[in-house]
Design a protein that fits this description.
globular; 3-stranded antiparallel beta sheet; 30% helix; alpha+beta; 6 helices; 4-stranded antiparallel beta sheet; single chain
């Protein structure tokens, strides 16, 4: 669009990855890393992202089970007993060479031409866009979260956060929609409390990673790959949480 009489273009996540990689090469920084870059387009309500490796993005959404698709429907709990319809609306794809061996962007001081290398270019990233709705919760995280906290548990933690923060009350989605219709998005409350959700998820990941008695997501996958593993997977963990609430019609709200 136009801004100050000039056309403003938006850099894509893949372009950002490519430029960052070139800057790393130019500075001759030796090393490698997985990468997950996302950009929220508030005009078109799209989340654009590029991912290389085993970090990822999930989108949580309140989905009415009466109209949800089979993949999104809660089939384990009878409708009358369901306390929430907060479901997984989207999960990004990981890029792995083999189990626990993610592809990465890296620089060794010279170009790697080996076809079987673990190093990938920005052009090899899993790049996509997701339509985002008001009320969505977006979680970006490294594998330290997903290896130690089940997706359904992440959704439950997010629901607990919503209820504690007052975004969802006893009236459920109908009550929330009525609040929105009155122009109250609880924008400031969201901005202040969303870091707490990231903190809670990080802490749960750490606690589970040090628990030798649980079957973590990592342990279950390891056993599927004929690797004997029990408990969590100690690892670094980074979580970025976002809450799409819309713009309040009253800045004081």
């Amino acid at each position: 669009g136009a801004h100050g009489g000039k056309h403003c273009s938006m850099i894509s996540p893949a372009e950002l990855l490519a430029q960052s990689y070139e800057s790393t090469k130019k500075a001759n920084v030796i090393g490698s890393s997985t990468a997950c870059v996302a950009l929220f387009d508030s005009v078109h309500h799209q989340l654009h992202f590029s991912n290389i490796g085993d970090s990822g993005i999930i989108v949580l959404r309140h989905i009415d089970s009466d109209v949800a698709s089979a993949l999104q429907r809660n089939r384990s709990t009878p409708r009358a007993e369901r306390k929430s319809d907060l479901r997984i609306a989207f999960i990004s794809q990981q890029q792995l060479k083999s189990f626990n061996h993610p592809f990465q962007m890296g620089w060794t001081g010279e170009e790697v031409v080996e076809n079987n290398s673990s190093f990938k270019q920005a052009s090899d990233s899993c790049t996509s866009s997701v339509h985002i709705l008001r009320g969505d919760i977006i979680i970006m995280a490294t594998d330290g979260l997903f290896d130690n906290v089940d997706i359904e548990d992440i959704a439950q933690i997010a629901l607990d956060w919503e209820q504690k923060s007052g975004f969802i009350d006893g009236g459920g989605n109908n009550s929330r929609n009525k609040r929105w219709s009155l122009g109250n998005s609880l924008t400031n409350v969201s901005a202040k409390s969303i870091p707490q959700l990231a903190d809670i998820l990080c802490q749960r990941a750490r606690d589970n990673s040090l628990d030798s008695t649980i079957d973590s997501p990592f342990a279950l996958l390891a056993k599927e790959n004929d690797i004997m593993w029990s408990g969590g997977m100690p690892d670094d963990c980074t979580v970025v949480a976002m809450h799409v609430v819309g713009r309040s019609s009253n800045v004081a709200l």
